[in-house]
Amino acid sequence: MTGRSFSAPVRDVRVRYHRPGGDGAYAHLLADFEPPSGPGGEPEFVNELSPFRLPPGHAEAVWRGVREGLGGHRALVRLRTGTLHLADSAEHGYREAGRLAARGALIAAGLGEPEPPSGAEAESGAVPDGELPGVTWPGRRGLPLPAAVRGLTVRVLYNRGGCGPFAIVTADLEPPGPEGGPELLSEVPEDRLPAEYLPALRAGLADGLCGVAARVRITDGRFHEVDSSELAYELAGRAAGLGALAATGLLPDAAVGDSRRLRVTWPGRRS
To answer: How far from 224 is each of 104, 165, 170, CA to CA, in Å?
Structure first.
């Protein structure tokens, strides 16, 4: 059956894909799916990333996966963001991420519901379409965090030796309540974490959790009168979300992006 063309854009489809087992299957990408521009309506691919951000072979793997996931439907696909980890990324991971992105875009556009894999695809261990974990788009209600991660601490310390973003946050991240949506509750007094930074913290958490729903309780925090900013707490929230996914096995530790300036810890994590 001939597929249909996207009639409206689906933007900000994000995928963080990880298949445990040490086979290098980690991928992160962000893409837009738009109506095709050509008169024939054929699928098109625009890679907006430099080879330094994502090698050409990995970008081509994304496009192969997107074509598979579209299943004959037509769109102009813009690859806007991609993150590569040398030890944990491989082309086959980016192909699967591209396929998942396309399946999510089809659902968001109302062009079809996903179907579970079968045959060789199921035997390969590919992620079931019916779940699409790690895939998010605006308005999607996420899958629940599979387990609680308590005492997770993020330190954003870019101001060592000079001015720069500063934030310290400690949080408990738990599976969501009966409503199933994301929740954020701060138990920290204003003199340690001003309420003005909570919206940025919430936005960062939403980005880092990548569609996974969680109840987040902020249990401690610190700020700097000069160096703290909305950017600092957005960075802290994103790192906290990624840390929770890594702590529960949904992402590799490398995806958290630890450094001397941004440090994420939780009980049991190897330093």
So the answer is: 40, 9, 16
| pLDDT above 80 for 24 | no
Q: What Å distances lie between residue 11 and 15, 32, 79, 104, 148, CA to CA? A: 12, 4, 11, 11, 31
Higher-scoring residue by pLDDT: 42, 247: 247
Q: What is the DSSP string of 189-201?
A: -TTTS-GGGHHHH
Specify the amino acid at residue 99: R
Distance between CA 43 and CA 79 in Å, rounded? 13
Tell me if 84 sits within 8 A of 55, measured CB to CB. Answer: yes
Mean pLDDT to the nearest integer, 82-105:
86
- Report CA-CA distances (Å) from 175 to 1, 2, 118: 41, 41, 30
SS3 11: strand
- With b for 16 or more beta-carbon neighbours within 10 A and e for fewer, the 171-180 pattern comes to bbbbebeeee
Token pair belonging to 49: 């990333």
Beta bridge partners of 264: 154
Q: Among 111-125, 180-194, 201-215, whose mean pLDDT is lowest?
A: 111-125
- Does the pTM of the predicted model rise above 0.90? no
Q: How far apart are CA 107 and CA 239, in angstroms?
A: 28
Residues 6+ apart with CB under 8 A from 62: 29, 31, 47, 79, 82, 94, 95, 97, 98, 101
